[in-house]
Each structure stands twice: as C-alpha cells, then as structure tokens.
C-alpha cells in the first residue's frame, strides 16, 4: 500500500508531462436555468466535438455561478450566458456574447478560429 501511495503521484506527474497541451479551447460560460444555454446544448453541443472547429478548440464548460477556475484568472467573466471565449495558450483570442442561433454561431466561431495560430504541420 505504501509503495502505491508513492508510485501514483509520480505516475500522474509523468503522464501530465507526456500528454500534449491543448493550445486552444472554446470556453462556454453558462449558468443553471439559462434558456439560451439549453438551446445551444440542443442545437450545437451534440455535434460540436465532431466538427473541425471542435477538434481545433474543444468545448469546455464553466458555470459562472461557481468559483472561477484558477487557470482562467486572466480571462474576464461574463454576466451574459451563454458566452463563448476562445482562448489559445491561456490568452483570450475573442468571444461571442450570447447564442445567436446555429448558423450565425458557426459564422462567428469561424471568424474567431481564423485568428488562431496555424496548427502544427499546416
């Protein structure tokens, strides 16, 4: 049991350094009871991870009614939900305030993603 307690933290540290860091993320700022968040969840969320945009900037959800995540301290919160903040290497690239509907969301997101650094190998 003692050996396991020593090995597990070392193994976790090794894995953390071995995995590639995600350079870009789309942070969805949401709150419980948000009607437009539910609309986004119905129209966009099920397919998002399967799209080119979703692979380039995976969706991460942040509940604005809870404590702000430590790794997002440099990113301003929002009162409008949903809001979408595109970050790259921990810095804000841009944001979409509110959910403008499916077609317009993809258009605005594509404009933001065009501002990202080109992917490795591109």
Automatic annotation (TrEMBL):
InterPro entries: Thioredoxin-like_sf (IPR036249). Keywords: Signal. Residues 1-23 form the signal peptide. This is Transcriptional regulator.
